């Protein structure tokens, strides 16, 4: 099994599945084919996870197939402590979306885009070459954008397309400029692999280029992570974007991976100097997102702004630069991806049955759909750090990391968590326990409870949250060496580590 090109198979398999959907005519068979491809992809990620050695430092299971003539880009894949958990998470979320998503939302085009987005996302997390990362980074965005463009007939969908396009261009152009700059520096130095991440860390970047490159990379990261003030695309996409692909796009945490894989290893001194400002920005983003989530009446936008709030917490954890903060941020990225995807599945199930996600038009659903109410409650509180869940462990590590660095700064984190809890309690009460809106009571009385496939998919996500919360040790050990390496980069930066040497 170790000789198999598992990482290339991960990239190719969902793309082949998307192509196979073009040959399928029956609607019911479309879902079965997509479900089979998603399940097989998850099985391959399980093989990668079994072969991964947590104690080893650096990329593992490396594959190098070809070099692009004239550019120096190498198709080289590998897996490290960050991506080893991201791969099964992406595959699991895709499988859950295909299995439990409303049937009328998952037509041929949406299923194909979902599999293509999965393929590009897995490739992005496995890429060991900066230019290849850029290719996959763009490839993640194109299918979703094409699907929005094809369906943009209503004014709201057209606005979604314009917002999504503007922000994604704003997030991609800086990364393109950084890649070109790195390539020019590598070609001038006669490097054999000008874009190779390992070679870049050993070779270093020119002293005069570091600050501009850092600024461009942080712009790309902040847009992709939906950090305030670059956040407005995320709630719009969650509320109006195509189901499935948009959920996978916002939960993949590609911006976080750019930080831990590119920014911190290559520019540790600049990252260390900006740590306090970035930590403050992250806390402001977390608090701002939680306040905006409380002000929403649409359940989809509530989840969208909760995702913005979570992005701020992740940025804060990394900016702390200590072991607990970084480990907490990386663990919380997994927890938020699982919990908020489960919550979005429940919200979409509500919308599919009632025709709306507006809480002002809902109420009293618990009488007709008690399982729907139960799973909304469970997934909602699993997402904000309820004891016994994986997000509780992630937020606890974040809190201890903040207390160890800046004790007073922990207050915004606690306030953010409290506001998010109030928001979800209020949303649950208005949607399930309140009185049905005037004229909407007949619709509520005909609501069907969750189907078996929906229950099993959401229950599986909740089960993972509980198991991860009760036994977080194996997850932390998988990334232990990677976290220590990141902490080492930041700690050594002021003394002039390898990446801080002028070219």
Automatic annotation (TrEMBL):
**Topology with respect to the bilayer:** Multi-pass membrane protein
Q: Which Pfam families match?
A: Proton_antipo_M
Origin: domain of life? Bacteria
Q: Which GO terms describe its biological process?
A: ATP synthesis coupled electron transport; electron transport coupled proton transport
Where does this protein chiefly localize?
membrane
Domain NADH:quinone oxidoreductase/Mrp antiporter transmembrane: where?
Answer: 127-417
Record has tRNA-binding as a keyword: no
Gene Ontology CC: endomembrane system; membrane
**Which stretches are transmembrane?**
33-52, 73-100, 120-145, 166-189, 209-231, 243-264, 276-295, 302-320, 326-351, 372-393, 405-425, 456-476
One GO molecular-function annotation for this sequence? Answer: NADH dehydrogenase (ubiquinone) activity
Q: Where in the cell is it found?
A: Endomembrane system; Membrane
Print the keywords alphabetically: Membrane, Transmembrane, Transmembrane helix, Ubiquinone
Q: Record's NCBIfam families?
A: NDH_I_M
| Homology family | Belongs to the complex I subunit 4 family.
Q: What is the protein name given in its UniProt record?
A: NADH ubiquinone/plastoquinone complex subunit, putative
């Amino acid at each position: 099994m170790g000789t198999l090109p598992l990482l290339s198979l991960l990239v190719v398999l969902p793309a082949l599945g998307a192509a196979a959907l073009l040959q399928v005519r029956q609607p019911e068979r479309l879902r079965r084919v997509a479900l089979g491809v998603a399940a097989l992809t998850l099985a391959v990620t399980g093989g990668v996870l079994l072969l991964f050695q947590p104690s080893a430092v650096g990329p593992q299971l490396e594959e190098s197939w070809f070099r692009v003539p004239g550019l120096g880009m190498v198709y080289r894949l590998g897996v490290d402590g960050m991506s080893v958990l991201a791969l099964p998470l992406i595959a699991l979320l895709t499988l859950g979306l295909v299995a439990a998503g409303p049937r009328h939302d998952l037509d041929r085009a949406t299923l194909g885009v979902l599999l293509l987005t999965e393929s590009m996302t897995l490739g992005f997390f496995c890429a060991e070459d900066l230019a290849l990362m850029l290719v996959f980074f763009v490839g993640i965005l194109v299918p979703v954008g094409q699907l929005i463009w094809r369906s943009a007939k209503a004014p709201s969908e057209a606005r979604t397309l314009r917002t999504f396009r503007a922000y994604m261009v704003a997030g991609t152009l800086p990364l393109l400029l950084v890649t070109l700059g790195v390539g020019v520096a590598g070609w001038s130095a006669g490097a054999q692999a000008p874009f190779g991440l390992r070679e870049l860390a050993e070779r270093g970047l020119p002293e005069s280029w570091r600050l501009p490159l850092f600024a461009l990379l942080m712009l790309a990261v902040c847009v992709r992570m939906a950090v305030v003030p670059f956040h407005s695309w995320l709630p719009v996409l969650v509320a109006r974007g195509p189901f499935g692909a948009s959920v996978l796009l916002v939960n993949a945490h590609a911006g976080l991976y750019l930080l831990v894989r590119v920014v911190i290893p290559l520019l540790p001194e600049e990252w260390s100097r900006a740590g306090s400002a970035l930590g403050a920005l992250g806390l402001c983003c977390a608090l701002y997102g939680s306040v905006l989530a409380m002000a929403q009446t649409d359940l989809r936008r509530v989840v969208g702004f909760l995702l913005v709030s979570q992005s701020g917490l992740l940025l804060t954890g990394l900016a702390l630069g200590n072991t607990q903060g970084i480990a907490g941020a990386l663990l919380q990225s997994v927890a938020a991806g699982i919990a908020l995807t489960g919550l979005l599945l429940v919200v979409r199930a509500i919308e599919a049955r009632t025709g709306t996600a507006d809480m002002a038009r809902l109420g009293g659903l618990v009488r007709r759909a008690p399982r729907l109410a139960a799973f909304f409650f469970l997934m909602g509180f699993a997402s904000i750090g309820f004891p016994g869940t994986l997000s509780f462990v992630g937020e606890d590590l974040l809190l201890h990391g903040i207390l160890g660095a800046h004790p007073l700064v922990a207050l915004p984190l606690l306030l953010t968590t409290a506001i998010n809890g109030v928001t979800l309690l209020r949303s649950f009460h208005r949607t399930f326990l309140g009185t049905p809106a005037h004229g909407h009571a007949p619709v509520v009385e005909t609501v069907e409870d969750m189907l078996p496939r929906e229950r099993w998919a959401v229950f599986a996500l909740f089960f993972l949250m509980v198991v991860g919360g009760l036994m977080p040790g194996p997850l932390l050990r998988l990334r232990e060496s990677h976290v220590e390496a990141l902490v080492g980069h930041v700690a050594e930066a002021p003394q002039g580590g390898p990446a801080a040497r002028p070219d």
